[in-house]
Write a structure and sequence with these properties.
540 residues, single chain, 5-stranded parallel beta sheet, 23 strands, globular, alpha/beta, 16 helices
C-alpha cells in the first residue's frame, strides 16, 4: 500500500466497466518468455544462510563468551530496540545479524545511478496519538516543531505525481481505475468509501478506535474483533461489494501491504488497511515519507548510531534459559566459521517467529505461527536509461491493472527532474501469492527458478507497460524472499491478542518483531522496538 488509501477517499467516485479475472496467482508463471534485452544482473537468495545453518547446528562450540543482552536480528525492530536502549543510557548489548549487513526487509543497495530499496520503501505519516513515533521521526530530522503541531519536511514527503495505473493501453492518474468502469462499480465504491469513513472514527466499547496503528492500540471490543474471523473476500460479498473493479482494487491493496489476497486476509486486517490512519491535520491528507533507498534511509541512521553494537554474519540458535535464569545461546560466525557458546542475562528475539521452533530449545509457549503464514516475494531492481519524455512521465508508483506484480517505484522520483539524463532504477514488487495454494506449495513451485527464469518475466511485465523497454535495461538484479512477511490471515489478530511475546519474559527472553503485531509495517517495528526497550530498562 502506498498513498492509494487516500486516493481511495479522493477518487471515491468513478465512472464505467472493466473485466476482472482471477489473474493473480503463480500458475501463469509456467509460460516463460525469452529475454529480449542484452543485460546482466545478480541473483540474491535470502534463504542461503538459513540453509547453511542446518549443518552448523550439529557442531560443538569452541569458545565461550558473555554478552549481557543479546538482540537476535538486525532488522528494523531489533535496531530500534537497540536505539531506545542506547538513547536511555543502556549500552551493554550486541545486535547479532545473520546476514552480512543489517536491515532485514528494509535493506537497500546502491549503484552508479542511484540508491534503491530491496524491500520497505515508504512510511505513512503517523497518527497524532503515536507520540513516540512522531518524536522518533523528528529526532531523525524528518520533521520539526512541537509534537502537537509537527511539520514534516517537504524533502522527504513523496512528491507529485505519485501514482498512476496502466489500464486499457493507457496511463491514468491514481490507482483507482477510472477507465471502463460502470455505474454499479461507482455505487459500490461509493458505499465502501462511506463504510471506511465510518470505521475511521468509530470507537469500541473500550473507548479505543476500532482500527489503529500500532495494531495493539485498536479496540478489543468483540463486536469488531469478530471481523477477524471472516475473510475480507466474504466481508465484501456480505456487503454486496462484488464488482470486478472493487474486488481487483481490494485485492491489490492487501497483496501490497500483506502479500496475501482477500481470500486469506481477514476482514479486520482488510479494513485496518483503509481505516487505521487519521490525518495529522487537514493538510496532510495521509501523505507518506519516501527516499531513493526507501526505508534504507532510516536504516542508515540507525546503523550509524548503533555501529559499536552491531555484529553481522552471526546467527544465533539453541536458545535456552537455564534454571539459574541465565540465557544460553550459540552464535555462529559465518566469516570465521567459529561457533561460540554465549551467556546472557537477557535475550531479545527480533527474528521472524516462524523460525522460533528451530532456534529455541524448549518449544513450549512459542508464538502460534507457521510457515504458511508467510508467502514469498520477488523484488527486482532494474537500472534503465529512458528517453527524456518517458522519464518525465514516471510517477513514484506505477502499476498495471490486473497484473500479477504490484508494479514498480522509481528511485529518482524525489530528485529534481530537470537535471536527469533519463537514468533511474525501477524497483518492481511481485508477491507470489495464489489463492489456491499454500505458501509452502508456492515455495516448492518456485524453488527451482533462478535469475534466468525471472528476468524474462520481469522484462515482459515492464514491456507490457512500456513497449521497447527491454532495449534500455542496463542491468536487472533480482532478490527472492522465501518467507517475506507475515500475512494477517483469518484469526491472526486473535492470536496476537493472546500476547505470545509475554510467554518467556520471566525467563529473560523478549520477543520483538513485527510478527508480534500480525502485520509487517514500519510503525509496528517501531512500536515493538520502543516497547521492548522500555520493558528491559524497567526490569533489567
Ligand atoms: C518486499 C517487501 C516490501 C515491504 N515494503 C514495506 C513498506 O514499504 N513499508 C513498510 O512499512 N513495510 C514494508 N515491508 C514490511 C517490512 O517487513 C517492515 O517494515 C520491517 O522492515 C520489518 O522489520 P523487522 O525487524 O520486524 O523484521 P525483519 O526485516 O524480518 O528482520 C529480522 C532480522 O532478523 C534476522 N535473523 C533472523 N534469524 C536470525 C538468527 N537466528 N540470528 C541472527 N539474525 C537473525 C534476519 O536476517 C533479519 O535481518 C515490506 C516487506 C517486504 C518483504
Amino acid at each position: 500500500m502506498k498513498t492509494d488509501r487516500r486516493e481511495f477517499i479522493k477518487y471515491g467516485l468513478i465512472t464505467s466497466s472493466i473485466f476482472f479475472g482471477s489473474v493473480y496467482g503463480i500458475k501463469q508463471l509456467k509460460s516463460r518468455t525469452k529475454r529480449r534485452g542484452n543485460y546482466t544482473g545478480q541473483w540474491l537468495d535470502q534463504s542461503d544462510r538459513g540453509h547453511q545453518l542446518r549443518d552448523v547446528i550439529k557442531q560443538e562450540p569452541t569458545a565461550n563468551i558473555k554478552i549481557p543482552l543479546v538482540i537476535v536480528g538486525g532488522g528494523i525492530t531489533g535496531l530500534l530496540t537497540g536505539y531506545y536502549l542506547k538513547k536511555n543510557g543502556f549500552t551493554d548489548f550486541k545486535i547479532l545479524e545473520m546476514n552480512s549487513s543489517a536491515g532485514g526487509n528494509s535493506s537497500y543497495s546502491q549503484n552508479s545511478v542511484s540508491k534503491f530499496p530491496w524491500g520497505a520503501h515508504y512510511i505513512p505519516l503517523p497518527n497524532k496519538e503515536n507520540v513516540a513515533l512522531i518524536e522518533f521521526l523528528r529526532d531523525l530530522g524528518l520533521a520539526k516543531g512541537d509534537i502537537r503541531n509537527i511539520e514534516f519536511s517537504d524533502e522527504f514527503l513523496c512528491q507529485d505525481p505519485q501514482e498512476r495505473l496502466f489500464i486499457k493501453g493507457e496511463w491514468q492518474e491514481s490507482l483507482l481505475p477510472h477507465k471502463g468502469t460502470n455505474e454499479d462499480d461507482q455505487k459500490q465504491l461509493h458505499r465502501f468509501h462511506e463504510l471506511v469513513n465510518d470505521y475511521k472514527t468509530k470507537k469500541g466499547s473500550d473507548g479505543k478506535y476500532v482500527f489503529s496503528v500500532p495494531v495493539l492500540d485498536s479496540s478489543q471490543d468483540p463486536n469488531f474483533l469478530k471481523l477477524d474471523q471472516i475473510s475480507f473476500a466474504d466481508f465484501l460479498k456480505e456487503h454486496g461489494l462484488v464488482s470486478d473493479v472493487v474486488v481487483w482494487y481490494m485485492n491489490y491493496c492487501t497483496l501490497d501491504d500483506y502479500g496475501m489476497g482477500i481470500e486469506s486476509v481477514s476482514a479486520w486486517a482488510g479494513l485496518h488497511y483503509f481505516c487505521s490512519r487519521r490525518s495529522l491535520d487537514s493538510n496532510d491528507d495521509h501523505k507518506i515519507l519516501t527516499w531513493p533507498e526507501g526505508n534504507g534511509w532510516v536504516l542508515q541512521k540507525l546503523t550509524n548510531y548503533l555501529k559499536d553494537h552491531i555484529e553481522t554474519d552471526r546467527a544465533v540458535f539453541n536458545i535456552r534459559t537455564e534454571t539459574s535464569g541465565v540465557v544460553q545461546s550459540r552464535i555462529y560466525n559465518f566469516e570465521t566459521k567459529e561457533l561460540s557458546e554465549c551467556e546472557s542475562k537477557h535475550l531479545v528475539y527480533a527474528g521472524p517467529q516462524f523460525l522460533a521452533p528451530y532456534l529455541f530449545k524448549n518449544k513450549q509457549n512459542l508464538p502460534d505461527v507457521n510457515v504458511d503464514d508467510y508467502f514469498s516475494w520477488i523484488v527486482a531492481n532494474i537500472t534503465v536509461k529512458l528517453n527524456p519524455d518517458e522519464f518525465q512521465k514516471l510517477h513514484w508508483d506505477n502499476v498495471r491493472f490486473q497484473s500479477q506484480s504490484l508494479g514498480y517505484v522509481h528511485a529518482r522520483h524525489q530528485d529534481l527532474r530537470g537535471r536527469s539524463d533519463g537514468t533511474t532504477v525501477l524497483t518492481l514488487y511481485w508477491p507470489l501469492y495464489d489463492k489456491d495454494l499454500t505458501a509452502t506449495e508456492v515455495r516448492k513451485k518456485i524453488s527451482k527458478l533462478k535469475w534466468q527464469d525471472w528476468a524474462p518475466r520481469v522484462e515482459a511485465e515492464l514491456e507490457s507497460m512500456h513497449p521497447g523497454m527491454a532495449s534500455v535495461i542496463h542491468s536487472m538484479d533480482i532478490k527472492v524472499y522465501g518467507h517475506a512477511m507475515i500475512g494477517p490471515r483469518v484469526g491472526r489478530i486473535h492470536k496476537v491478542l493472546k500476547q505470545p511475546w509475554n510467554a518467556r519474559k520471566k525467563q529473560g527472553v523478549y520477543f520483538a518483531h513485527t510478527d508480534n503485531s500480525g502485520m509487517s509495517l514500519f510503525e509496528e517495528a517501531h512500536y515493538w522496538g520502543h516497547r521492548v526497550a522500555q520493558e528491559i530498562l524497567k526490569h533489567g
